[in-house]
Design a protein that fits this description.
The structure is a homodimer of 206-residue chains. The first copy, chain A, is mostly helical. The first copy, chain A, is built from nine helices and no strands. Chains A and B meet through helix 6, helix 7, helix 8 and helix 9 of A and helix 6, helix 7, helix 8 and helix 9 of B. Chain A binds a DNA duplex (30 and 30 nucleotides) through helix 1 and helix 3.
DNA sequence: GACTCAATTCTAACAGCGTTAGATAATTTA
DNA sequence: TAAATTATCTAACGCTGTTAGAATTGAGTC
């Protein structure tokens, strides 16, 4: 039921994208803390209030940046998975691609943590946006569940594997980017690799 | 080299503790977002500016709350570990105690995420406070490394196990408290339990 | 009891934040 | 050209963490 977008809509979408570019730019240079709505507006050549014509709130801008980031993540995972030949390799490739994406894009991880942790609180984002982000994350991770099932796991078990991999990767990424605990020579990517290999071996023998 | 604290020092310490109680109280009722310096001051019966006589910044108050929380965590882990008889049980008990502490104290987890992620940025906390918090976290987790070594792992490997357990628990806790990904019937505590059992079995046969 | 000096708290303000109402400018439509 | 809609700006509100400087409190001394 979607009709061709009018010229006006295209222009509007383009302006939104310019604002999002400004947001990403400020975000990259100043981090999440420095990415105030005013800073974003200034960089985009706007007055703060003007942004409210294109987005309903600052969090909505953040959410859209995150949404696009999750789409990129999904693409990155899919691309890596596509180069493999076996279910074992698919699981490993998907897990590592997920890990690597956030190892390479720490700001995106910041944003994810910020919105995913705070988003449910007071009227944050609203259920629609919220569900959309959840779905995008799950979609990006889905190859892990698919590969697990191909390795003989039940659907329930396959989803559990997906959740486990997500949790482990997330925890390691947190460690990687904050350096809270000394790693004693071990590297986060190596630990992720080892975790996935163990999981695959474990699935193979059940 | 530490001498008995004077009466004046004791009073000062008591007032600090009252402020920290107010902080915990606001934090419990309003969450991290609602725990503004002004809200804390009001609850403690102070004017906002008065808090700066006892703490150097709002983040310093947060940091002290977190420090005490990490001490409690260490106690909780130690207490559970003390009830066990074997190295296998110690590892399992320590991992589960860590997980359970933050499952039961979501606000403390919020605080940890907030300070641990943002703390390194612009002049946040300073290296001393920062190192102190890191050390407290590592101390709380140490029983995991100890038990791993008792199970025959090298010191390097034992520390790796500690890091892995921390990462997995952290990731699952994030999931537990935000419900970002559907868990498909699996429960986070069960997943943590399964992870630890696997790790223990894996250590046993090396 | 009055004086002093330090410890403690308050008042008032600053600059920054997200957000909103209402006026204004720019663009499209009739 | 006139009207109407779209887009942006100005100005303000109430919030935030923080600071300077004045006022208050409290203890120790003459």
């Amino acid at each position: 039921m979607q009709m061709r977008e009018s010229r006006k809509e295209a222009v509007s979408r383009h302006k939104r994208e310019l604002i999002l570019d400004a947001a990403r730019s400020v975000f990259a240079e100043e981090g999440l803390e420095g990415a105030s709505l005013r800073a974003i507006a200034t960089r985009a050549g706007y007055t703060p209030a003007a942004l409210y014509f294109h987005f309903e709130s600052k969090e909505a801008i953040y959410a859209e940046v995150l949404r696009q980031s999750l789409a990129s993540l999904g693409d990155a995972v899919s691309a890596d998975v596509a180069t493999t030949r076996s279910a074992r390799q698919r699981l490993h490739a998907a897990g590592m691609a997920f890990f690597r994406y956030y190892a390479d894009h720490p700001r995106d991880l910041d944003l994810g943590f910020y919105l995913f942790r705070g988003g449910m609180k007071p009227a944050g984002l609203g259920h629609d946006r919220d569900h959309e982000l959840n779905a995008a994350l799950e979609a990006a991770l889905h190859p892990i569940a698919e590969a697990s099932e191909a390795l003989g796991a039940s659907r329930q078990k396959a989803n559990t594997v997906m959740v486990d991999c997500f949790a482990h990767a997330t925890g390691l990424l947190l460690l990687l980017h904050t350096g809270r605990i000394r790693m004693f020579g071990a590297s986060a990517p190596d630990l992720m690799d080892a975790y996935l290999r163990d999981k695959i071996a474990q699935l193979g023998k059940e």
